[in-house]
Amino acid sequence: MVKWKTYLEILLVSTRLGLTSFGGPVAHLGYFQNEYIKKRKWLDEKSYADLIALCQFLPGPASSQVGISIGIIRGGLFGGLLSWIGFTMPSVIALVLFALLLDGIGMESASWIQGLKIVAVAVVAQAVLGMGKKLTPDRTTITIAVLAAIATLLFPTSLGQILIIVIAGLIGYTLFNKGEAVSLPDMEIKINRKQGIIALSLFFIMLFGLPVINRMFPTLFVGLFDTFFRVGSIVFGGGHVVLPLLEREVVPQGLISSESFLAGYGAAQAVPGPLFTFGSYLGAAIAGWKGAVIATVAIFLPSFLLVVGVLPFWNKIRKNTHFQAALTGINAAVVGILLAALYDPVWTSAILQPLDFILGLIAFTLLVYWKVPPWIVVVLTALGGIMISYV
C-alpha cells in the first residue's frame, strides 16, 4: 500500500510539472528543484546537481532524464516510468492535437503559421545565447563551437554530426585534461548494476539492430521507429539540438513539408514539458495517432535505457577527470551545432523579408530581455504573422 501511495505521488507531482513547466530545459530544472528538492526533499542539493551533470552528458532531453532519474530514485524503475509519463504526456497530447488539426483542415499555408516559424528563430537564438554563455566561456571553447558550426553546415548529415561530437570530445580530452583527482561523496542509487547492464545491452541492440530490421522489413512504421530511436540516441544538448537531426531525417524524404516541420517546432514552444515531444507532432503529422505513439516511444526510449544503464555506475564515472575534459569539448560542439541550426533550416525558412526579421527581433527581445513567458510570445508572434500577411 505504501508503494502504491509513492507511485501515485510521483505521477501526480510529475503531471503537475508537465502541465506548468514552461520555458525550456533550464527552466524545467528550476521547477524540479523547487518541487522535488526544496518542497518535498526527495534528494539533497548535491545529489540533484550530480544528476544534472549526468543527464547533460547523456544524449537525449536532459530535463526529462533528470525527472526519470528522480522517479527511479524515489520509486524504482516503475517510479521512473511514471515520472516520465506525467511530465511528458500533457505536451504530447497538445502537439498531437495540433498536428491532426493542421492535417484535418489544411492550415499549412495559413498566415499565422509563418508567425510560428518566425518564433522558432527567436527561441533557437535564445538557446544559442544561453548555452553559449554557459558552455563556451573562453576563446578555446568558442573556437570549438565555431568550427563545429562550420562543419555542420558543410556536412549536413546525421553521421556528420556524430563525428563532430566525437572529434570535439577528443579535442576536449586533449586540451582540458588536467589530471587532478576529484573527491566526491557517493550518491545513493536504488537500482543495481545488473539492471544497468541489461538496459545498456537493449540500447545498443536496438541502436544497431533497428536499421537492419528496417532494411529487411521496409514499412512506414518500422522506418519511423528506427528514425526516431536513432535521433533520440545521438542528440546531445537537449530539445533544441534535435531540430537539425529530425529535419534531415523527415523533410528531404518527403515525409513532411518544411512549412509543417517549422510550424510544429514553433507550436512546441507554446506548450509545457520537454521539447522532444516535437517528435510526437511529427509522428502524428506523418502517420496519424499511430505514428504519434511510435515516434513518442521511440524518441524517448533511448533516454530511459541510458539513464537506467548508467545510473548504477555514476558514482565512479563522475569522479573521472578524463570524462570531465571530454565533456567540455562536447558541450562546446553542441553550441556550434545549434548555431548552425539557427541558420539552416530555421532562419532560411522563416526570415523571407524585412517584416519577418522585425517580428523575429521583437519576439527575441520579449523572450530574452523582457522575460515574457514563451507561450505568450508564441501567441503574439502568430498574430504578428497574420498581420504581416495583410501588409
TrEMBL record:
Main location: membrane
GO cellular component: plasma membrane
UniProt cross-references to Pfam families, sorted A to Z: Chromate_transp
Membrane topology: Multi-pass membrane protein
Keyword Chloroplast: no
TM region(s), chain numbering: 77-100, 112-132, 144-176, 196-213, 220-242, 291-311, 323-343, 350-369
NCBIfam families for this protein: 2A51
Protein's recorded name: Chromate efflux transporter
